[in-house]
Amino acid sequence: MIKTLALFLATAVAEILGCYLPYLWLKQGKSAWLLVPAAASLALFVWLLTLHPSPAGRVYAAYGGVYVVVAIVWLWVFDGVTPSIWDLVGASVALTGMAVIVLAPGQ
């Protein structure tokens, strides 16, 4: 279970970084060279998703909950925006949904 969670966390960071770097280029005028590590990060994201032993659809559904939580942490740490109570409640609901999918008997 710890391995699965760590894999989900690494996957989420790779996806968010792969999307954040082009955002910096497009919205904040940073160098277009950021697209190179962005592409590498998105390739890493896709590869990490293939490491899960469960069927792809279940992995994607469960991963979504972890992604939401990591995105809220990213908002706080990298964007400097303190999450609202609604951000935290929403992330909790998403994480609960992920737990239901991952911890379901017989999965």
Could you characterize the architecture of this molecule?
- The structure is a single chain.
- It contains four helices and no strands.
- The chain is 78% helix and 0% strand.
- The chain has helices at 2-28, 35-49, 56-77, 85-103.
- By secondary structure, the chain is mostly helical.
- It starts with a helix and ends with a helix.
- It has one domain.
Topology:
Blueprint: H1 2-28, H2 35-49, H3 56-77, H4 85-103
Helix pairs in contact: 1-2, 1-3, 3-4
Compact summary:
The protein is mostly helical.
Report the principal-axis shape: flat
Helix-residue proportion: over 70%
Query: What is the strand tally?
Result: 0
The N- and C-terminal alpha carbons lie at a distance of: 12 Å
Mean pLDDT: 91
List keywords for this structure.
0% strand, 4 helices, mainly alpha
